[in-house]
Design a protein that fits this description.
This is Fructose-1,6-bisphosphatase class 1. Its cofactor is Mg(2+). It comes from Undibacterium squillarum. Keywords: Carbohydrate metabolism, Cytoplasm, Hydrolase, Magnesium, Metal-binding. This protein is 31% helix and 24% strand. The protein is globular, with a radius of gyration of 19 Å. It starts with 5 loop residues before the first helix and ends with a helix. By secondary structure, it is of the alpha+beta class. A hairpin with a 5-residue loop joins strand 1 and strand 2. The strands form four sheets. An eight-stranded mixed sheet has the order 4-3-5-6-7-8-9-10, with helices on both faces. Helix 2 packs antiparallel against helix 3 and helix 5 packs across helix 8. The chain binds 6-O-phosphono-alpha-D-fructofuranose. 6-O-phosphono-alpha-D-fructofuranose (P6P) binds next to loops.
């Protein structure tokens, strides 16, 4: 099969439907190059003296791993000078990061979780980088947090890189979902899956079942029915997976169907859940919808949520359409 590189793919998409202006194409290629660098750093493991904690906490109050900080720095440095961005925001930084005055500012805003699932780093389980791209508001002068607070439907691109047995970049610019595998020998991203579609039905669900005593009734009902298998109302057996790395769980669902759930629960009723809206749920929801799946917070479409804070959390139910519709319907009864 003729190899198509990420650059060729983006140029041809731009030519076909001009959905990828040159500045956006440049941004995507810079982020993809940064993910290559992160993949290299992650792959060194103990040999790179990058494992373990950094002795600090992020804005979420979570212990930062050395690779969390390294990955964040890689993305900041790669994107500062290109002239395509006005500002960046990251799970690892409390406030937004405007492009320094010494560089030209562009019309895009980039948000990312530089290394999602980092509790898995030291035990060699797949982790990933998640990113989301918005256009800066017309007439914006100095970027503020408010400029980032746009609903997920405003994203012009979203993607993730999964650092697993293969390093794969998954990308959407609103015209379907395409996957690129990193050719480590050539250092290039090669198109390996086109227009990915998530099966509407599944026999596999992903949730951290250790929290089951804290779940609200709709989630308990939905999971219990699957656990009942053939003997219960679903009439079929289900399987369970929980990698505790959203990128890895979503990538499995993208490839073979499934439903991923991180619901709000009684542990912290004031919190809408654990996952962050702007740089985890929104980009993953865009990807899942573009692949024919569905993504809600149990009550409404994630992409329709109007953000009120940069690091706000949201409940997440995403994946095979028919399953997300069912669990969402239980929340409305
Ligand atoms: P728990 C990783 O820390 C993360 O943000 C997601 O990648 C993952 O799905 C979830 O949290 C795992 O959470 O509570 O099972 O450790």
């Amino acid at each position: 099969m003729k190899r198509v590189s990420l650059t060729q793919f983006l140029v041809e998409q731009q030519r076909q439907n001009n959905s990828i202006p040159a500045e956006l194409r440049l941004l995507i290629e810079v982020v993809a190059r940064a993910c290559k660098t992160i993949s290299h750093a992650v792959g060194k493991g103990a040999l790179g003296e990058v494992l373990g904690t950094a002795g600090s906490e992020n804005v979420q109050g979570e212990v930062q791993k050395k690779l969390d900080i390294i990955s964040n720095e890689i993305l900041l440095e790669a994107n500062e000078w290109g002239g395509h961005l006005a500002a960046m925001a990251s799970e690892e930084m409390e406030t937004i990061h405007p492009i320094p005055n010494r560089y030209p500012r562009g019309e895009y805003l980039l948000m990312f979780d530089p290394l999602d699932g980092s509790s898995n780093i030291d035990v060699n389980v797949s982790i990933g980088t998640i990113f989301s791209v918005l256009k800066a508001p017309e007439g914006m002068s100095t970027p503020t947090e408010q400029d980032f607070l746009q609903p997920g439907t405003k994203q012009v691109a979203a993607g993730y890189a999964v650092y697993g047995p293969q390093t794969v970049l998954v990308l959407t610019t609103g015209n379907g979902v395409n996957c690129f595998t990193l050719d480590r020998e050539m250092g290039s991203w090669v198109l390996t899956q086109s227009n990915v579609q998530i099966p509407a039905d599944t026999k596999e669900f992903a949730i951290n079942a250790s929290n089951s005593r804290h779940w609200y009734p709709p989630v308990t009902r939905y999971v219990d029915e699957m656990l009942a298998g053939k003997t219960g109302p679903r009439g079929k057996d289900f399987n369970m997976r929980w990698i505790a790395s959203m990128v890895a769980d979503v990538h499995r669902i993208l490839n073979r169907g499934g439903i991923f759930m991180y619901p709000a629960d009684l542990r912290e009723p004031e919190k809408a859940g654990k996952l962050r809206l702007m740089y985890e749920a929104n980009p993953m929801a865009m990807i899942v919808e573009q692949a024919g799946g569905m993504a809600t917070n149990g009550k409404e479409r994630i992409l329709d949520i109007q953000p009120t804070a940069l690091h706000q959390r949201v409940a997440v139910f995403l994946g095979s359409r028919n399953e997300v519709e069912l669990v969402t319907s239980y929340h409305k009864e």
